[in-house]
Structures
1.
Amino acid sequence: MARRGNSIIKGIEVSELIRLLNKAYADEWLAYYQYYIEEKVVKGIMKDAAIAELQQHAADELRHADMVAQRILQLGGTPLLSPKEWFTQTNCGYEEPKDFDVTAILEDAIKGEQCAISTYSELAEMTREKDIVTYDLVSRILADEVEHEEDLTALHEDITEFISSLRG
Ligand code: FE
Ligand code: FE
Ligand code: MG
């Protein structure tokens, strides 16, 4: 069973797990903000469909940040206390939207989701059969990230097909 401090859960060092969860926590806040601002600046064909998707994903990323923070606390850690640390700890970084066109925005967001999928896949691999609570948490988040990536990819396809149909 998990003990606090420098303890070990079935071969996983808890301090290392907390460190990796904090990196994912930084990713979630940056992903949240990326969706938050993209939804406001996005332009172009079928942007309303994109706005609905981006808003939903923003809410999901904020919920993920909360889930990860709760687990860090349960493990005896402290979630990153300063937004400055989001940039030093992030795995996936932050794609500042420079081109507000809907297809460019969706491409940035898809990259972010692909990175999130690989982060949570690694966390699931690491905790499988070792820390069931964290494994369950990261698996649930992973399922959301996979759905995000699929939704964005499908929307990107619809929009690019529509644009090419207009060109005849
Ligand atoms: Fe997320
Ligand atoms: Fe996501
Ligand atoms: Mg969605």
Note: The pocket of fe (iii) ion (ligand 2) is lined by residues 31, 57, 60-61, 113, 116, 145, 148 (CB under 6 Å).
2.
Amino acid sequence: MTTEILLELENISKTFKVRDKYNPGKPSFVHAVDGVNLAVEKGETLGIVGESGCGKSTTGRMIMRLLDASKGKIYYRGTDLSSLKGKSLLKMRKKIQMVFQDPYASLNPRLTIAENVGEPLIIHKLIKSRADRDEQVKELLGQVGLDPSYYTRYPFEFSGGQRQRIGIARALAVEPEIIIADEPVSALDVSLQAQVINLMQDLKQQKNLTYIFIAHDLSVVKHISDRVAVMYLGRVVELAEKHSLFDNPMHPYTQALLSAIPVPTPGAKEDRIVLQGDVPSPMNPPSGCPFHPRCSKAFDKCRECMPELKLVGKGHSTACHLYD
Ligand code: SF4
């Protein structure tokens, strides 16, 4: 079976210039994303996982062109996204939509749901009248499991889970091909998380969508993802098909993240790997393997040489000197 690549990230990096409070005269640089290569196939869900500050959201924002990459290229259906301006950028934005962690922040509290969800329809000139907009919004609300009559209400009248459904309806309004969901369930409690994930799964099937699903927790991406990329300090350290990653994690960081997922039976898991310390500052990343200060398996080479992401099994890549 041939696969169609929709998105390709080619060696992308993002560096932010920041003011160092201990050295205000000298600018410092944060390497938020550092040489990421990823390809996203049509119809798949690619999970991107890592702790706060690992560069996963910055990667999502660069794909949306909310941020420009400092280096590297991002291609959508072979077109270099950095070359797009004006109408062609708007056309691309119709094809790639984003769902945010905090739907309340992405909805205008002064606008009704019809106005919030219908806004992209106006921007992309997809409706002819207000009645047309209202009809489409009602249809979208039904698709995300909300009562269509809610279209006249305001965001504050909804719960967190309902607001996230409204955020999904807004993203779906322009019939995108790809949805980048940035921590879409992190603000919800566990039962609501499952409902929103199930809804996203159903919509993916119905509308033939492709997802990039960003989360800080591997257990969240487990059900929805086909493949998972694990990021650490701006780099992809492991990339694999979901079952391969969960059954046979290769990178010590992925092993630690997986061991931290709670199991239903108390005492069933005794081999929890506790990560020592915090993620180092991306302003001053460690030498060699960026994970070495926290890695229980680190050896001399790890402190000197940066491991490259390389294939270690069928469709399974990792960046670790243990597999050199
Ligand atoms: Fe640990 Fe070394 Fe592998 Fe990095 S390269 S994850 S420090 S063993």
Note: The chain has a mean pLDDT of 92.
